[in-house]
Amino acid sequence: MSARKPSIRTCIGCGRTEDKREVVRFVRTPEGTIEVDRSGKANGRGAYVHATLECFEAAIRKHRFASALRANVTEDDVSRLRADVEQVLETKGTLVHKDGDA
Ligand SMILES: [Zn+2]
Predict the structure, then answer these.
(1) Distance of CA 98 to CAs 11, 22, 39, 102, Å?
(2) 97 CB contacts (<8 Å, ≥6 apart)?
(3) Alpha carbon distance 88, 102 (integer Å)
(4) Domain 8-92 part of CATH 3.30.1230.10
(5) Ligand 1 mean position to 101 CA, how many Å?
(6) Nearest to residue 45, comparing CAs of 69, 71, 72?
(7) Contact yes or no for 40/25 (Cβ under 8 A)
(8) 3-state secondary structure of 15
(9) Of 45 and 99, which is predicted with more confidence?
(10) Cα of 1 to ligand 1 centre, how many Å?
């Protein structure tokens, strides 16, 4: 029962896989909009992005949210999500870009 594989998710920004604790989950609501899933447990179609702004921006640039979540992503959605992501990253302490181990 407890011998489950680690939960690996694919980041839609860079395409690399990652343990699910290292990614931010986005979910499509029943209304067809995209929200940051802070609990990681919301129902609905989900997509995962590394907890970095780089991967978030890459996912936006490549229109990955629209295809992964089959939702329309407007400019307003992008700015709302970006603000939410920044908040989440601040909480996680990963907002500061790290260059190596310094
Ligand atoms: Zn990534």
Answers:
(1) 19, 15, 25, 8
(2) 52, 54
(3) 23
(4) yes
(5) 19
(6) 69
(7) yes
(8) coil
(9) 45
(10) 30
Would you say residue 3 has pLDDT above 90? no
Tokens (6 digits) for 61: 């640039």
- What φ, ψ does residue 88 adopt, rounded to 5°? -65, -45
Q: Which amino acid is at 28?
A: R
**Residue recorded with tokens 């989440």:** 88
Give 36 Cα–ligand 1 centroid separation in angstroms: 16
Q: What would the pLDDT profile of 31-87 be if each residue is shown by its tens digit?
A: 889 999 998 889 999 999 999 999 999 999 999 999 999 998 999 999 999 999 999
Tell me, what's the pLDDT at 99? 55
Q: Break the chain into its structural domains and give their ranges.
A: 8-92
Q: What is the per-residue pLDDT for 76?
A: 95
Give backbone dihedrals phi and psi of 47, rounded to 5 degrees, phi first: -140, 155
